[in-house]
Design brief:
Distance between the termini: 13 Å
Helix content: 40-55%
Structural class: alpha/beta
Radius of gyration: 21 Å
Number of helices: 14
Shape: elongated
Amino acid sequence: MRILHVIDSLGVGGAETMLAVLANAFAEEGHAVQVCATRTGGATESLISKGIPVHILGRTSRYDFRGLLRFRRLVSQGAFEIIHAHGWSTGAFVTAARLLFGMRFGFVMHDHQGKSEAGSVVHDLLRRSTVQALSCYVGASEAALARARKAGVPADRSFCILNALPVAPIDGFEKADIDGEFHKTSDEATTGLCLAGIRREKGILELIHALAMIRVEKAYRILVAGGVRDREYVLACERAILKHGLSGKIALIGEVPGGKDLLRRADFCVIPSLSESGPLVLIEAMLAGVPFVCTRTGEVAEAAMSAGLKAFVTPGSPEELAREIQLLLEMDAAARRERGRVAKQFAKDKFDIRGRVSEWLRVYERARAIGL
């Protein structure tokens, strides 16, 4: 099958990582896979297998006509049977190209958004154009699937497929030189990691408020690794750190193209998100064998909670977050390692991408039958 994965950009993020994972998995199965970033490239290019062609269109606005023309040329030359669009902005672009040029292909819309991230713009896109143009819809959570069906996507063309990752580490991000960030902590300090682009939905302010409540004697530090998604929110986080006197306890270290390597070096992981569809980083933490504190948000979290894994807290509750982080800090290293070991085995059994390929292939076959 000839498949083109399309996304706005190839920066660091969950949707971008899932694009690389799916593209690699289908290429390994012998399918003809290519990747298209409609705007810009980025660090995720290093995750995509070298044999997979990557195209950067360089569009500068939502419906950049020159970008649409480049996309039409790419699709025509590749004779793709499936266009797999990641995210609603990308889906709108593909929709515009399909309607404008009368293009025929199986159009799969992949929704990575969490519950609170899906506002009226998404609903408008669904109602007005994308629903009519897409062949199949795939949500990364049941909440996303319910939104799509409410907006008019037929039940026989809408599916939920949970995120998954390769059990073996992905090459690329592992190669980053991030020793300096860990060198800033004492050898005796317990180091936590929060991998998140800094914006409201990721709950960084709640994490800061939680740390202000923690009372432990041992040295610790939490590194927040993620790019600026909302500058005003970042400034609010920085003010809160200063207000609570936490400069020695938490550091916003920015975008780090070595997230999985950071996870393997961390003593624990914190995922304080207010909204997630996965979260993908929870799978990454579990596969790294790292114990975690995570909010109860997203299908991956629901599955881990159902399996009895610890520790999950209410989204937006600094008090619960503080309690569980403190418990991890008070554990000895052996107890943390055992918790991580149990989580790792669960993730290997439940979230191996090889177990999702057949689900995606059924969606692709359905989309091809509808779109061509």
